[in-house]
Structure formats: C-alpha cells, structure tokens
Amino acid sequence: MARRQKARFAMFALTFAEYGPSSVLAVAEVPEPHAGPGQIRIKVRTAAVNPIDWKIRAGYLQELFPVEFPGIPGFDSAGIVDEVGEGVTGVKVGDEVIGYGPTAQAEYTVVDHFTLKPASMSWELAAALPTAAETAVRALELLGLAEGQTVVIDGAAGSVGSAAVQFAVAKGLNVIGTASEGNHDYLRSIGAQPTVYGEGLAERVAALAPEGVHGAIDAAGAGSLPELAAVTGEPKQVVTIADFSGSVPEARVTTHSSAFHALAEATALFESGKFDLRIDSVHELADAAKAQDASQTGHAAGKLVLNVAN
Q1: Which of 38, 104, 116, 281 has its CB 3.0 to 4.6 Å from that of 77, i.e. a possible disulfide?
Q2: Kind and range of the H or E element at 82?
Q3: What residues does 172 pair with on adjacent strands?
Q4: Domain formed by 133-253, architecture
C-alpha cells in the first residue's frame, strides 16, 4: 500500500480509533513524539506483534491498559536512535537499538528502556526480543531458583516459553518444557527436556525429575495451574503470565513489566550463541491486521514481526 506524503512534524503509525476487531486498525498520520529526560526516540525499522496487542485493541484489558484514542499498538521495537533525551548515557544518535515501550508500531517511538542491538542480530529478532525476554526473566526471578534446581515451563515452545528455557539453561537450571510433539526437537535444541502438555502432566514430570521440581512457569494459560502446583508441591512456586482464572489462588500472577535488564541480558546471551527466537512471519505495517489475527489464533510458529521502515 503506497503511503501519501505526510505533513511536516507528523508520522505514520498503526492506529485504532475504537475498540473492536482487527478491522478497526488503520495506518494514519499522527503527531511525532519527542524524547524527554531519560528517553530516546527511535526511528523504527521493525516492531513485534504480541498477544497483548489484540487483547488491548479488542478492549479486553481496559482496566490494566486504558487507551487514549487513537491508540497505537505495540511494545517491542528496533531501529535507529534519532533523538537522545537529557540524562541519557550509553547511546547516541545513529546507534542501532532495541526498545521496549508503548506505541512501538509507528515510524517513531519514544522509550525509557532500551539496549544496543548487536550488529549481527537481524532486525526481525531484535524486534521479537523485548517482551519475550522481559517476561521470561521476570517470571524466573519471581521463582528465585538456584543453579542445579529444576523448573517446569508449560508452553515452552512459544516465544516467552522458549526465552524462559534459554535464560534458565544459562543460569544452570534443569529445564522440563511442555509442547506438542512436533516441537520436541526444538526444545531439545535449546536445552530443555520435552514432554507433552495436558492431562497426566504431573506424572510425566515426576518420571523426568524423580528428585523433584522446584518451580514452574505457566506461559500457555491452558489450565495447567493445578497440575503445576502438584508438580512443585508448593503453589507459591508456580508463576503464571497467562492464567487469570484463580484456579490455584496461591499461584503468583505477574502482569506488569519490571525486569528491563532482560534486554541487555538477552543480547549478551545472543552474542555468546545462547539465545534466539523463532520468527513465524514478517508483515508490512499496512498488513498489521493480518498479523494480529494470526496472533489471536494462538497457532503462530514463532514471533510475528512488522516491517515499519518501508
């Protein structure tokens, strides 16, 4: 889709003027943001699509994430620094960076949290990294496990799950990951012992970890909390990022980002050959509705990425 010439001091962004289905999304002209103290502005090359994007757009998360219309989706961006706010150190205009913050799916975005992009990292992986890495590290830190202990990650082949596997392996944890059988070779390749999810999980995990399990992460939201609590023997050692049913009241639910250091940790692991994420597909910004629809099915085989630079 060809873009018309934009007005001065304006940019093109993916927007939605009301809650609703993906058809409410449109590329529109909006005012450019500018970096304030402690912030940088990124000229965006790529941005990732996450399940939270369509949930916010549909109006399912109005209490947690209220939208001032027109809303601009996205939290994960990668691009070139073109403004540096007061007090910012370690980056300069022209640097390639990975950014984490709202309104990512636009020509320009302003972020408080960022890290330098390794030169060898693709723009697609750079955009895919922030939410997956931050969420994975936050969940692992809540568990507080020590080297040599065992963690179960339910939904280990997804973006957050696979990031959690790789961070856990890097910390010296033993990892058991659930996924469909078609993803078991992938889990082995990133250091996890695979098993299928669903009924009987507690028994299968007990066979793989006869000395016990010290923590569990629910990255799937597929109703596994009771079995994960049984596996650990301690419901407080279960962290979920996706199940808000309250089926195990003692399990810990984490929703708000705080582990921003995860961006730099992920890039360091990448540079040592120990971190990667699968990319399902790359879409143009004008085709973002298709990407959100694909995300909503839950069947994407990796991250969905938007090409914003064109």
Answers
A1: 104
A2: strand 76-84
A3: none
A4: 3-Layer(aba) Sandwich (3.40)
